[in-house]
Amino acid sequence: PPAICAAVSASIRVLQENPLMRENYFVRVRMLKEKLRVSGIAFRESASQVISVTIGDAVMCKQITDTLLNDYGIYAQPINYPTVPWGEECLRLTLSPMHKDSDIDHLVESLGKVMRAYDARQELQERAA
């Protein structure tokens, strides 16, 4: 639609005219990746600003994203088959230029809590089987 094309064109112009805005964005992405590493949250290394945190189970992936949204106010997109192969289900994390350091800290802390909780549940289910 014309409105979408106009918005995209305006966004490109803003970024072309403000290279510092783009650099600051990538500084935040590198910051998030480093905080994930320090917290022990494994993710797929890539040059992309999109960060994939492998979960490996479609049901658990959806449960984690639901918990992040409902309990912590964080939207993380679940990526399941057929977008990724079976067993490679993941969370897709993306920042915006408007995210602050405190938002990144909240994401990493909350994601760590939720993943630890679901790993514990997974271990209990495996023991019960």
Spans with pLDDT under 50 lasting ≥5 residues? Answer: none
String of helices and strands: HHEHEEH
- State the major sheet: 3 strands, antiparallel
| Mean pLDDT score | 90
Q: Which strand order does the major sheet show?
A: 1-3-2
> What is the radius of gyration?
17 Å
Instruction: Quote the distance from N terminus to C terminus.
Output: 52 Å
Portion in strands: 5-15%
Shape: globular
Number of strands: 3
Secondary structural class: mainly alpha
Q: What's the total helix number?
A: 4
Q: What percent of the residues sit in helical stretches (DSSP H or I)? A: 55-70%
Structure characterization notes:
The protein has 129 residues and is mainly α. Helix content is 62%, strand content 9%. It has helices spanning 2-17, 19-39, 58-72, 101-128, and strands spanning 51-54, 77-79, 90-93. It has a 3-stranded antiparallel beta sheet, covered by helices on one side. α2 packs parallel to α4 and α3 packs across α4 (101-128). The longest helix is centred in the C-terminal third of the chain and has 28 residues, at 101-128. The chain is globular and about 50 Å long. The chain starts with a helix and ends with a helix.
